[in-house]
Design a protein that fits this description.
The protein is of the alpha+beta class. It has helices at about 10-20, 30-45, 90-95, 120-130, 145-155, and strands spanning about 50-55, 65-75, 75-80, 100-105, 110-115, 160-164. A six-stranded antiparallel β-barrel has the order 1-2-3-6-5-4. Strand 2 and strand 3 (about 75-80) form a beta hairpin.
Length: about 160
């Protein structure tokens, strides 16, 4: 594991980010920031092109749930990764909805998410960390780690291929 030491600025930021998602769930501050980010990502203004808002139907409420995500491209396909692992609510919602979602970025696009088998996730996870710096504190490997390090953790981080 190569996480920056606490005495560095990056190390302190990583610690704050991990605390915002203690127990694998977004705390109050993270929920507020996620709502704001989801609105900004959906508008598509002044943000990286890989930042979008994912909308999925809540498995218990039936209401739309929106959250900001980073899309990564690998080998000609686009993917969404759960930085909080398989127990994240949005992952459970996507599975319950049969993969049916909408992506928002300057408009709404219906899509289907197809889960990638753990054996195929390692290169996608490495590419994801290259484009999603906010997710790095939640991964026990450095973004520059060898592919074998990502193979060891691939089963802990769901990856979904975006099909439109």
């Amino acid at each position: 594991m190569t996480i920056p030491p606490r005495r560095t600025v990056a190390g302190r930021l990583y610690e704050v980010k991990r605390r915002m998602y203690r127990g694998g769930r977004a705390g109050a501050v993270a929920r507020i920031l996620n709502r704001l980010s989801a609105k900004l990502y959906a508008a598509g203004l002044l943000l990286p092109s890989h930042a979008v808002t994912l909308e999925v139907t809540g498995r218990h409420t039936g209401r739309p749930v929106r959250l900001p995500v980073a899309i990564t491209e690998y080998d000609g396909a686009r993917y969404v990764v759960s930085m909080l692992g398989p127990d994240a609510h949005w992952v459970r919602n996507v599975r319950a909805a049969g993969g049916q979602v909408a992506l928002h970025r300057r408009g709404r696009t219906a899509a289907r998410l197809e889960e990638v088998p753990p054996a195929d996730r390692a290169p996608i996870l490495r590419q994801y960390l290259a484009v999603a710096p906010g997710a790095r504190p939640h991964f026990p490997v450095d973004r520059r780690a060898p592919l074998t390090a990502f193979e060891e953790i691939a089963g802990q981080y769901p990856v979904f291929r975006i099909l439109i």
